[in-house]
Specification:
The chain is an alpha/beta fold. It is built from ten helices and seven strands.
Length: 289
């Protein structure tokens, strides 16, 4: 595996623990079966939805995806809280902090679109085929030379009017801290002239939903269904309009700060204020070549 891959200090033993109420074993088992059944239903009904979407349009597909994703999260015993208004234009790059496999249906429940995921997801049972059928972009994280082609595919999708969803930290964190947003995916938004929609994901209580380090998917699934009172909150932050930033680094930094600021409840800063401060800092740091 390449050394450039991002990683988080979070571990299952140190971070992925639940300190709130617990569901009984029977209820947890029922939730697990219900969640898997809901995912399988999506896999089986996917071809029919795709056929109807070809006639009824993208809006129908998004409505069905939103309903199914919400049903998946609820079946696993997790309440959903969406804060903020969904943006009007679909054509955008949605970026969010990354905590769990639950993030994928959670974002889809509010902002359905085409996901960017690590290639390992393709090999997951049930979820892998479903992700592939949903038009997921799979990134070979240990083969850096494939990244430009993936970025071009994302840009082409947005240029055609699609919404693309990415988790630019490149690795999951437990939710108590946040990683740096990697720059590459933001190049796709620049190339397509698309807006960037930052999103903040939080699980309350913190811990049970975290899927970090060497955690296994079965262990994470059981931890989620066995937790009582688990709530997933997705906060839709103000979009960053297309053309607000000249390069992917400053665009990634602005999106990262927006998500981190929401987590820390810091005062909001407008895009124009950030541009001005960034430009001033760049000018003061610039030296003659």
């Amino acid at each position: 595996m390449s050394v450039w891959l991002p990683s988080a200090p979070c571990t299952p033993r140190g971070c992925a623990t639940h300190h709130g109420p617990a569901a009984g074993s029977l209820r947890a088992a029922a939730r697990l079966l219900a969640g898997i059944a809901t995912i399988l239903a999506g896999l089986l009904l996917g071809p029919l939805v795709a056929l109807l979407a070809a006639v009824l349009g993208t809006r129908f597909r998004h409505v069905m995806t939103r309903c199914w994703a919400r049903a998946v999260v609820r079946a696993f015993g997790v309440r959903i809280r969406v804060i903020g208004q969904a943006p009007g234009p679909v054509r955008s790059l949605v970026v969010a902090n990354h905590i769990s496999w639950l993030d994928i249906p959670l974002v889809a429940a509010a902002l359905p679109g085409r996901m960017l995921a690590k290639s390992e997801v393709r090999r997951w049972p049930v979820l892998g085929p479903l992700a592939a059928r949903g038009g997921t972009f799979f990134l070979e994280r240990d083969r850096l030379r494939t990244l430009p082609a993936t970025v071009r595919e994302m840009a082409c999708a947005m240029d055609s009017g699609a919404r693309v969803i990415a988790f630019p930290e490149g690795s999951t964190w437990c939710g108590r801290a946040q990683g740096r947003f990697r720059h590459a995916v933001f190049q796709a938004a620049l190339d397509a002239g698309a807006a960037v929609q930052p999103v903040r994901i939080t699980y309350l209580p913190t811990g049970a939903a975290a899927f970090v380090g060497e955690d296994s998917l079965p262990a994470s699934l059981w931890r989620v269904v066995a937790a009582g009172g688990l709530t997933a909150e997705i906060r839709l932050l103000p979009a960053i309009p297309a053309g607000s930033f000249p390069d992917r680094r400053s665009l990634a930094r602005a999106a990262q700060l927006a998500v981190a600021r929401e987590s820390a409840n810091l005062p909001s800063v407008s895009v124009h204020q950030f541009v001005s401060s960034s430009s001033a800092a760049a000018s003061s740091a610039r030296t003659p070549s």
